[in-house]
Each structure stands twice: as structure tokens, then as C-alpha cells.
């Protein structure tokens, strides 16, 4: 059995891992003077729309943008399951960007729109004192309901 497939009785269950995506995750905290509702609404409706509507988004071949809201109220259940939540950094939101080539992300990050529009707009909601943590990883999508035609 290869590392890119699993089998049960010789039947392949997972697709071939032929082109994993590159995922860039930004973890950040809201400004202290705005509410969580204000933060999430602005992040989604203003910053999110600016991001995907930017010329750089299309020309740099950006594939996916996901906004993740932190759910600390659910972490107690993780602890009951013997898991350790990521508590070394307080965060309220995480933006995930996906590309197929690293150069596509570099072009987007270094674009004039990122510097003159997206960065300054993020400053309307992100706490600079808390900082931003970033991870970069390869994402091998094993299953997604869209791939199965369920959504």
C-alpha cells in the first residue's frame, strides 16, 4: 500500500495525493475596543470582500480564502477528550489562504493592493500589540463534501 492511498480489502479509499495545496494561516486578535460581533462582521463583509474582489486575487491565482472564528467555549470538550488546545497564543480569528504555487502567494503578498489596501484595511480590526502568527503548510485534501456532490 502506498503512502498516498489507504485500502480496505484492496479497494482504494482516498484519492491520489498528486497536487497538495499550500496553505498560509494567519492567527490574530481583534482590537480591544471593538466587540466580537463588530470584528467578525467587518472581517467578513468588508475585509473579506476587499480581498477576493482585488485584482491581485485573480491575477495571482489565489485559490481559496477561509475565515475561521476561534471557539474557546468548545475547547473544554477537547480537554475532556485528552487533547491540548493551542493556548500559547490568544487569537480571535484565522485567515487561511490557499495556492498551488508558492510564487503565487508571494506575488499576492507583495502586490500593490496588499500594501495599499488590504494591509491598511486589516489594521481597522486587528490588534497590532497582540501580533500575528503565521503558519505555512501543505494541504492534501482527502475528502470534501463538494467533491462527493453532496453540497
Beta content: 15-25%
Count up the domains: 1
- Fraction of residues in H or I helices: 25-40%
* End-to-end Cα distance: 31 Å
CATH topology: Alpha-Beta Plaits
Low-confidence stretches: 1-7
- Provide the residue-averaged pLDDT: 87
Number of beta-strand segments: 6
Number of helices: 5
- Structural class call reads alpha+beta
Shape: flat
SSE pattern: EEEHHEHEHHE
CA radius of gyration is 18 Å
* CATH class group: Alpha Beta
Strand order of the largest sheet: 4-5-3-6
- Report the CATH architecture: 2-Layer Sandwich
Biggest sheet features: 4 strands, antiparallel
Provide a descriptive summary of the structure in words:
Pfam families: EthD. The chain is of the alpha+beta class. The chain has a single domain (19-73, 84-139), classed as 2-Layer Sandwich (Alpha-Beta Plaits), CATH 3.30.70. It contains five helices and six strands, in the order βββααβαβααβ. The chain has helices at residues 36-53, 55-59, 75-80, 102-109, 112-122; strands at 7-8, 11-12, 21-28, 64-69, 93-99, 132-139. The strands form two sheets. A four-stranded antiparallel sheet has the order 4-5-3-6. A two-stranded antiparallel ribbon has the order 1-2. Strand 1 (7-8) and strand 2 form a beta hairpin. Helix 1 (36-53) runs antiparallel to helix 5. The longest helix is centred in the first third of the chain and has 18 residues, at 36-53. The radius of gyration is 18 Å and the shape is flat. 14% of the residues are buried. Residues 1-7 have low confidence and may be disordered.
Amino acid at each position: 500500500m502506498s503512502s498516498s492511498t489507504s485500502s480496505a480489502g484492496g479497494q482504494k479509499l482516498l484519492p491520489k495525493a498528486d497536487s497538495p495545496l499550500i496553505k498560509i494561516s494567519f492567527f490574530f486578535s481583534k482590537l480591544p475596543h471593538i466587540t466580537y460581533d463588530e470584528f467578525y462582521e467587518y472581517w467578513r463583509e468588508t475585509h473579506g470582500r476587499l480581498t477576493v474582489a482585488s485584482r491581485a486575487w485573480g491575477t495571482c491565482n489565489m485559490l481559496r480564502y477561509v475565515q475561521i472564528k476561534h471557539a474557546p467555549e468548545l475547547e473544554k470538550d477537547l480537554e475532556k477528550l485528552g487533547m491540548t488546545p493551542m493556548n500559547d497564543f490568544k487569537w480571535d480569528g484565522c485567515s487561511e489562504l490557499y495556492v498551488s504555487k508558492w510564487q503565487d502567494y508571494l506575488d499576492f503578498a507583495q502586490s500593490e493592493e496588499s500594501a495599499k489596501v488590504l494591509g491598511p484595511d486589516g489594521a481597522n480590526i486587528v490588534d497590532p500589540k497582540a501580533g500575528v502568527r503565521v503558519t505555512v503548510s501543505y494541504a492534501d485534501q482527502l475528502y470534501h463534501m463538494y467533491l462527493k456532490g453532496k453540497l
